[in-house]
Amino acid sequence: FKKEKPRLEDLKEIIKAASFAPSANNQQMWHFIIVNDQIILTKMKEAAAETIEKLENHPGIEKYKTFVKYMKNYTLFFSDAPCTIVVLKKPYFSRTENVLKTLNYSQEEIEKYRAYPDIQSIGAAIQNLLLMAHSKGYGTCWMTAPLIAKEKYEEILKIEKPYEIVALIPIGIPEESPGAPARKKIEEILTIL
What pLDDT digit, counting tens, does each position of 4-57 carry? Predict the structure, then answer.
């Protein structure tokens, strides 16, 4: 990313586009925090690095040590962006889940039938956000790996329940424009009955 921060008006339009995503029962269970303060981004990066280091030094990690070392590469780069959007969600429980609870279904059974409407809604909002950012010439990345330090971020950002962080999206003017990654052939992902 270039050092130049995205324009506030652009960021507001990007968040507005996210807000037009469909959501379960139109609950709009999302909230967005724009972090463009480099001190806060550095604190977040340090929190993630510290968490990964604890993993690296944990007894019994030998089998995964190479992976955990590599994890730093794709977990910490959000702080290189001039701005990161923190995506929050609050839980949403469908009427179906409430009915199943009333009928004394176990949590395991409820999970089997749960369609995760809150996560689906947030995914749609993030997709809208990414598309609008792209249309305005910004580069982004939908990141979940940094959530290894989610609890620390929630302290740093003073996030209160019922909200929780579900993704980080670094955003800025791209320094380069890599091509799209390879995609599976349509025959691999489509079944027609």
Answer: 999 999 999 999 999 999 999 999 999 999 999 999 999 999 999 999 888 888
Burial of residue 81, with CB atoms counted within 10 A of its CB: 0-12 exposed, 13-18 middle, 19 or more buried: buried
**C-alpha atoms less than 13 angstroms from C-alpha of 100 in its C-beta half-sphere:** 15
Alpha carbon dihedral 4, 74, 115, 183, in 10-degree steps, equals: 90
Helix (H, G, I), strand (E, B) or coil at 84: strand
- Strand order across the 83-89 sheet: 30-35, 83-89, 164-172, 139-140
Q: Is 138 helix (H, G, I), strand (E, B) or coil?
A: coil
- pLDDT tens sequence across 136-173: 999 999 999 999 999 999 999 999 999 999 999 999 99
Contacts of 31 (CB under 8 A, 6+ apart): 88, 89, 90, 163
Closest CA to 69 of 89, 84, 83, 55: 55
Nearest to 72 by CA among 42, 43, 41, 51: 51
Buried (b) or exposed (e) across 147-156, using 16+ Cβ within 10 A? bbbbebbbeb
